[in-house]
Write a structure and sequence with these properties.
The chain is α/β, with parallel strands linked by helices and 497 residues long. 41% of the residues lie in helices and 21% in strands. It has 4 domains: 126 residues, NusA, N-terminal domain (N Utilization Substance Protein A, Chain:P, domain 4); 65 residues, Nucleic acid-binding proteins (OB fold (Dihydrolipoamide Acetyltransferase, E2P), Beta Barrel), CATH 2.40.50.140; 83 residues, 2-Layer Sandwich (GMP Synthetase, Chain A, domain 3), CATH 3.30.300.20; 126 residues, no CATH class. Strand 8 and strand 9 form a beta hairpin. Helix 5 packs across helix 8, helix 9 packs antiparallel against helix 11 and helix 14 packs across helix 17. It is elongated, with a radius of gyration of 43 Å. It starts with a helix and ends in an 18-residue tail after the last helix.
Length: 497
């Protein structure tokens, strides 16, 4: 008997991958249930498996008391000491109960309890095993269909490939082999339900690991992967070895490596993108095959950028129904707006025209009193733009405005314009009317007044027309008899305001 019980426990343990202790506990619980069913008692029943004899012993557990009030649960001190002289009040004593009288019905009850406990342990093992495999690739066989969902046999259990996780470009037949990634494990009552996916981007990553040894060994790293199942995918890769080209390694000789992945995905197009820690360069790479003219970072905090392309490249950059730019945005994690050079030029012109056609009232100067505003108007200054054109030195020449007051006015004017910035992408030409000297002079002086920086070496000085050399300007100044050296009047009245 001992050998039979022990061998049975070992066999079940190996077949079901269950700890022998779990099976023994199930056996003890089964004997307790059978005893309660047979004896129909309120006694506290316990069971203990003896590995030496292979038998399960049943005991009625009672507490030692002075006066017995509940015979099912209590035993007197006198009776207890007849069993064991060392027992004292509040100790517990186990009274053996015969098991050979349990009968066939009790045996059936025990069998059901054992099977139930074993199934529960098996389900828990499966749940624990597959919960640790979320995101991993598994192979299975299509077993049957339940409506639009597919039941897949993955070995130790059946899994579910729901309709939402199926690619619209794929169809399956019963008995067909299938690869998918585990995305979720649900602990339902009838057993853990393993959910598979053929649309999760992790499927791309796992397929790349299988087909490309450099990814498997860590030489190449998959930074991100996005796709629209059945249509197109983008995978960003980087190399940890500067001598290894990550894109070329993923493509393989004559596309051998990438083609095997494309076949697995039933013809889905895959763009392999060179990853970069520079957001602008990363965006340009992600929009491949379109050729990018310039990338403008609009708002780093909100992760927004504009990509400028030639007119003929715009549709290629955007893609069919916006697919290319949509996937690129998901891949790099930035919002990308694609604009042609002509569109960007028109935007810049519109902003510049609005700035030049409108003026800012002196009343908007923060911290400047009405009296000072009146003095500025008396001096012929009608708007803030004129203050920025004049500069602080010329402001000090106005009667009633001293050095401190001039600095105060200039600071207020700069505060109004400190957020004005127009970026003209390289390669975008502005019309000649916008490039007129009067406009350039005004824009340059305004920018210098705001930033406080001198003009760049390749810019003309304020009083030098375009196309005039420095020697010609010097000659004109000499012929003018030193008028350019005239100084402002010495008498300057400092305004107390």
């Amino acid at each position: 008997m001992s050998n039979i019980i022990t061998q049975t426990i070992e066999q079940i343990s190996k077949e079901k991958n269950i700890d022998p202790k779990v099976i023994i506990a199930a056996l003890e619980d089964a004997m307790i249930a059978a005893s309660r069913k047979y004896y129909k008692t309120n006694e506290e029943i316990s069971a203990r498996f003896d590995p030496e004899t292979g038998l399960v012993e049943i005991f009625a557990v009672k507490r030692v008391v002075e006066n017995v009030e509940n015979p099912s649960l209590e035993i007197s001190v006198e009776e207890a000491r007849q069993i064991d002289e060392s027992l004292a009040l509040d100790d517990t004593v186990e009274l053996p109960k015969p098991t050979d009288v349990l009968g066939r019905i009790a045996a059936q009850t025990a069998k059901q309890v054992i099977l139930q406990k074993v199934r529960e342990a098996e389900r828990q093992n499966i749940y624990n095993e597959y919960s640790q495999k979320i995101g991993e690739l598994v192979n299975g066989i299509v077993k049957r269909f339940e409506g639009p969902d597919i039941i897949v046999d993955i070995g130790k259990t059946e899994s579910l490939l729901p309709l939402r996780e199926q690619s619209r470009a794929e169809t399956y037949k019963q008995g067909e082999r299938i690869r998918a990634v585990i995305v979720k494990v649900l602990p339902v009552a009838k057993g853990p339900q393993v959910i598979l996916s053929r649309t999760d981007p992790q499927l791309l990553v796992r397929l790349f690991e299988m087909e490309i040894p450099e990814i498997y060994d860590g030489t190449i790293v998959v930074k991100n992967a996005v796709h629209e199942p059945g249509d197109r995918a983008k995978v960003a890769v980087a190399s940890t070895d500067r001598d290894v080209d990550p894109v070329g390694a993923c493509v393989g000789m004559k596309g051998s490596r990438i083609n095997s992945i494309i076949r697995e995905l039933r013809g889905e197009k895959i763009d392999i993108v060179q990853w970069s820690d520079d957001a602008a360069q990363y965006a340009a790479n992600a929009l491949n095959p379109a050729k990018i003219s310039k990338v403008l970072i609009i708002d780093p905090a909100e992760r927004r950028m504009e990509v400028i392309v030639e007119e003929k490249q715009q549709s290629l950059a955007i893609g069919k129904k916006g697919q290319n730019v949509r996937l690129a945005s998901k891949l790099i994690g930035w919002q990308i707006d694609v604009k042609s050079e002509e569109q960007k030029k028109q935007e810049v012109l519109s902003v510049m025209e609005s700035l030049t056609s409108s003026s800012t009232s002196l009343g908007e100067l923060e911290g400047v009193s009405e009296r000072l505003v009146e003095k500025l108007r008396e001096a012929g200054i009608e708007n803030v733009e004129r203050i920025l054109e004049m500069g602080e030195e010329k402001l000090k020449e106005i009667p009633g405005i001293g050095e401190k007051t001039a600095a105060k006015i200039m600071e207020a004017a700069r505060d109004l314009f400190e957020e004005v910035e127009i970026e003209v992408p390289e390669g975008i030409d502005l019309p000649a009317a916008i490039k007129a000297p009067s406009f350039e002079e005004k824009s340059r002086e305004t920018k210098e007044a705001i930033s406080g920086e001198p003009p760049h070496k390749d810019e003309h000085p304020p009083d030098q027309p375009a196309g005039t050399s420095e020697e010609e300007v010097a000659a004109e100044a000499s012929a003018a008899g030193g008028e350019s050296d005239a100084t402002a009047p010495d008498s300057k009245q400092e305004d107390s305001q």
